[in-house]
Each structure stands twice: as C-alpha cells, then as structure tokens.
Specification:
Oligomer: single chain
Strand order of the largest sheet: 1-2
Largest sheet: 2 strands, antiparallel
Number of strands: 2
Strand content: under 5%
Radius of gyration: 19 Å
Shape: globular
Distance between the termini: 22 Å
Helix content: 55-70%
Number of helices: 12
Length: about 325
C-alpha cells in the first residue's frame, strides 16, 4: 500500500468518526438529559463549577461510537487494531458501569476503587500477553532520545514479568491520568488530539496501520465531541469516555513499543496525576497542601485564571510535549 493510500485511509477514519460523533450529539445529549444522567459537582471545587451541576454526562459514548465504527470498518483487516479497539471497549465498559452507578443508583463514588482497578489490571495483562504471544511485541523497553548518543538507540530487556508489570503501569496509569484531566470543559478531549496524533505517527513509522487507523478515528471522535464539550459544555464525557481514552492511548503505546514516549507525549496527563499524588502525600505527611487544589488545572483556576485560559494553555502544552516526544525517536531502531 502506497503512502497516498495510507493517508487516504487515515483521513477516512478521522472524517467518519468525526461525522458520526457530530450526528450523534443532537440525539444523545437530549436523551441523557431526559434520563437525568446529570453530572454532580464537588462542593469543595471552584465556585464557578457549581453552575455545571446537572449537565449530561456519559457523553463519551458519542465519540466511542464514532471510533468503533470507523476503526472496525476501515481497520478490520488489521488484528492489532482490533485488539486496540477491544481494550478501548473494555475500559469504556468499566467507565460506563462507574457512571451508571453514580447517576442512576445515586452511589456518589460509583464502582469501588478496587473493582475498577481489578478490571483495568486484567485488561492490561491480557493486552501484554496477546501482544507478546500473537504479535511478536517482544519484552524490551525502548529508551527515548538514546538515538542521539548511540546509533540505533538503547533498549532494556524486561522479560515477560517485567513487561506485564510495565503494561499494567502504562495502561492503568494512562486511563486514570486522563480521568483526572477530565475536569474542565474541553480539556481532556483537546489534549488527547495531539497525543493521539503523535501515537499515530509512531504507529506509521512502525508499519502498524491498524493502530494508526484507530488513533485517526479517536482524533476525529475527540474533535467532534469538542463541538459539544467546549466551554460552556453541553455534555461531559464521564468516566465512560475518559477511561476509554486513557486505555486506548496506553494500549497503543504498548503495542508500538513507545511506553516511555507516552510519558513525554502525554506529559499533561502526567502532570495532572503527579499533582494529585504530591498533594495527597504532602497533606498526609506534613498537613500542608502544595497546590491550591488538585488536579493541577484547578490550581490555576483558583489562582485567577479563567477556565478557557487554563484549557487553551494545556492544549498548547500538549502540542509542545507531543512534538518533544516525537523528537525522541531520532535514529532509533
């Protein structure tokens, strides 16, 4: 398949997912509203967020539908792409159950943490085992930027158990970091676009077209969702969307041997997660908070930044980090 055919296929995936997501908006959002699937807002959060209470949530099903239709239609000949869609669906299902319990059964915390974590770990282990046994993934870890110093770069052999542990850390970590990032209108969806674009390019460089197709579909879905999710948001993605996004990105990184690259490319997610970890540790050990509020986006809000300013700044940072992560590919492999 020539380069032009590659880009045509990827463009079709993006446009198809974008179109489906846009068309579903006028159908899904009123339905979620009628079903009273509304977002609850933390009382201890920024005061400006109180007006968001009742905004329909679980809207992630819109862009997931677009991603699955486009990904399966155009990528069903590529087994690795199907595996990626399966992992995404699994994380989306966990998020859906969590959202459903919150908004329908009125259990504010949704699924118990151990229940969510168990499901995410099982999916990550299955991904790792299939990647090694079926797709010849190997159990090595590629070191970013090492190609600047040693032609071909450096890899670290982990062995099967080390690789399984790595897959769990990357996929589960990505899913929950994206979930933490999803706290402002358009933030998670907008940050995901450059991250998925970088993983798409990595997949193409590794000749993994199925993964590239799914990433293109994910980009289209996020762009379509932003039409309804930008400030002021008419719908939120909920855990249904955020866990699925993070699971997809983490799984794509595992399948393309770019786990450490995702730490750079998805640096906004990393900063959001680290802010929560630092805040909790600091408060428990020293009784003091490092940030005004965590995750990090709330720190800037409480510092006087408008919601839009925080979102646009984080979008810009995501683009810069995606480019930086791609630079780490220099002379690798």
């Amino acid at each position: 398949m020539g380069a032009n055919s590659f880009w045509l296929l990827l463009s079709k995936a993006l446009i198809t997912s974008l179109t489906i997501t846009l068309l579903l908006g006028p159908l899904i959002i009123p339905l979620l509203r009628r079903l009273k699937f509304g977002q609850s807002v933390r009382d201890d959060g920024p005061a400006t967020h109180l007006s968001k209470g009742g905004t329909p949530t679980m809207g992630g099903i819109m862009f997931l539908a677009g991603t699955f239709v486009a990904g399966f239609w155009l990528g069903h000949h590529f087994p690795e792409g199907l595996l990626l869609l399966g992992v995404t669906a699994g994380f989306g299902l966990i998020g859906f159950l969590d959202d459903y319990i919150k908004v329908t059964l009125k259990r504010s915390l949704g699924l118990r943490a151990r229940e969510k974590l168990f499901g995410q770990i099982i999916l990550s282990i299955l991904l790792a085992l299939v990647a090694v046994s079926t797709f010849g993934r190997g159990t090595d870890l590629v070191i970013p930027f090492s190609g600047f110093f040693i032609p071909g770069g450096l890899t670290l052999e982990l062995g099967i158990w080390g690789f399984i542990l790595l897959a769990i850390l990357v996929v589960v970590g990505a899913a929950n970091a994206v979930n933490l990032t999803d706290g402002l209108d358009g933030l998670a969806a907008g940050v995901t676009v450059p991250v998925a674009a970088a993983l798409l390019l990595i997949a193409l460089l590794m000749d993994k077209l199925g993964i590239a197709i799914v990433m293109a579909a994910l980009i289209g879905g996020c762009l379509g969702f932003l039409v309804y999710n930008h400030h002021p948001a008419r719908v939120f993605m909920g855990d249904t969307g955020s866990l699925a996004l993070g699971g997809a990105l983490g799984a794509a990184a595992v399948l393309t041997r770019s786990e450490l690259f995702l730490v750079i490319i998805g640096g906004v997610y990393v900063l959001e997660a680290l802010s929560v970890i630092i805040q909790v540790i600091s408060f428990q050990l020293f009784g003091r908070r490092v940030f005004r509020m965590s995750p990090l986006h709330h720190h800037f809000e409480l510092g006087g930044w408008s919601e839009q300013r925080v979102v646009y700044t984080f979008w810009g940072l995501a683009v810069i980090l995606a480019l930086l992560g791609l630079a780490g590919l220099y002379q690798l492999g």
